Amino acid sequence: MSVVFSAECQGDFIDMNNSNASAVLDALGYSEPYGEEDAELFLGRVLLALAVAPADAGLPATGTDTRFIDCGRPAGYVQMRLEELHALAQYAATAGLLITWG
Asked: Which UniProt keywords apply (predicted)?
């Protein structure tokens, strides 16, 4: 399962697994795994998150058996994805598009 961020399904999109998307959405102040937002407002949230969010320490890989393995998340992942969302939001704002995710 994954969460995809896009500019109204146009151009490039940013795809994250549910766990990682949840961490990014938390940094942005969103509680739902789906939604849409005006690009300028979304850009503001991204800039705020980049300014105040603590550095992402990452998560170690875990697995209780061979049927379920969580591959974890590298340190700095949230900030890296916020930078990508910054570029997407700038594109969407210029094109007059909404940011959608889900």
From this structure: Plasmid
